[in-house]
Design brief:
Elements: E1 8-10, H1 38-57, H2 60-79, H3 86-90, E2 123-127, H4 136-151, E3 159-162, H5 168-177, E4 180-181, E5 197-201, H6 206-215, H7 219-223, E6 225-230, H8 232-238, H9 241-247, H10 249-254, E7 259-262, H11 270-273, E8 276-280, H12 283-287, H13 292-295, E9 311-313
Helix pairs in contact: 1-4, 1-5
Length: 327
């Protein structure tokens, strides 16, 4: 994240799509005021985020995505026995405040800044969003996250975001938005800690999803988890069975224990949300898996992986992941 004393290194360049048809991300030069004040940059990025939110709200993609989100969250919260009245409140109507003067952006004018307190116990963790200050695709993915938080009435202070590529400017923007930029690379091994948690991981590496499953490998923990990210069914189709079982065994083992709904595909957001699904884990399906499924909990080892898309934390001790505290 910060330029000083970074404990992370990229093992391999991360790819956002496994397709030759993929167009490179559009990049924008960060704008500065005449005196080069960083606060001016922050305002520019916040304005672009709001503009992206206004476009997203008016799109066919968002209206269709809402139907998918509602369906998945309804089933997910039902199995968690959410208190009566919580679900309708949590899935209330969206709104996006706008200002005639796009430059006059403050944290209070960004979408979703005023959630209804006490209506939802969900937490949210976001990995791998990328450089949203300069990348249009990453910025739209961040905007989707902000609207998702608003839709579910998840306070932004209950959302944690991490990417080792974040600049100081992007950290400042995240702080202004009210979410928390994590300073530690957890390699995706974050435990839900007994609380319902949404993991938003658009186009992350396969190992990151595998690590997340390993860190929550029990019926109780997986039942509290909802993942928005690369389609697990798509991974099953693209990867040879031997590779999937050897290198990403937790994904391979959970395929019969999950439900998956793809986000809609529209021409406007093809490069941004392609191959993205919402995954949740019904208790009944988890309980029907063979008993030995849960007995094997060996920490993933990716030493033989040639196509490893994950960010390594060089300072993490081999057994440290087993003791990560929940958010």
């Amino acid at each position: 994240m910060a330029a000083a004393a970074e404990p992370w290194q990229a093992v391999a360049p991360r790819r956002r799509r496994r397709s030759a048809a993929r167009r490179p991300r559009e990049r924008e030069a960060p704008a500065r005021d005449p005196e080069g004040e960083p606060q001016a940059d922050c305002g520019v990025v916040l304005r672009r985020i709001r503009e992206a939110g206004e476009d997203l709200l008016l799109s066919d993609f968002w209206s269709l995505a809402l139907e998918t989100i509602n369906g998945c969250l309804t089933k997910h919260l039902e199995q968690l026995k959410a208190p009566e009245g919580t679900l309708p409140e949590a899935l209330g109507n969206l709104h996006l405040d706008s200002s005639p003067d796009g430059a006059a952006v403050t944290p209070g004018s960004i979408p979703g800044e005023s959630p209804v307190p006490g209506t939802c116990r969900l937490k949210c963790v976001c990995y791998g969003i990328g450089n949203f200050a300069t990348c249009v695709i990453a910025r739209h993915q961040l905007t989707f996250l902000l609207l998702f938080l608003e839709k579910c009435q998840i306070p932004r202070r209950h959302c944690w975001v991490y990417d080792p590529l974040f600049s100081q400017l992007e950290i400042a923007v995240l702080n202004a938005l009210g979410v928390t930029a994590l300073s530690e690379n957890e390699e995706g091994r974050r435990s839900v800690g007994g609380e319902p948690t949404v993991f938003y991981m658009p186009h992350c590496g396969t190992a990151l999803y595998n690590n997340l499953l390993w860190g929550n490998w029990s019926v109780d923990a997986l039942a509290k988890m909802l993942i928005i990210g690369n389609s697990f069914r798509g991974l099953e189709e693209r990867l040879p069975a031997k590779i999937l079982q050897k290198n990403y065994s937790y994904i391979a083992k959970i395929l019969e224990g999950l439900e998956e709904r793809k986000l809609p595909e529209t021409s406007q957001y093809t490069d941004i949300f392609n191959d993205t699904s919402i995954h949740w884990f019904p208790v009944q399906k988890l309980q029907q898996l063979p008993t030995d499924t849960w007995a094997f909990r060996e920490e993933p080892d990716y030493e033989d992986c040639e196509d490893l898309e994950i960010i390594r934390n060089k300072t993490r001790a081999p057994s440290a992941a087993k003791h990560l505290n929940s958010l």
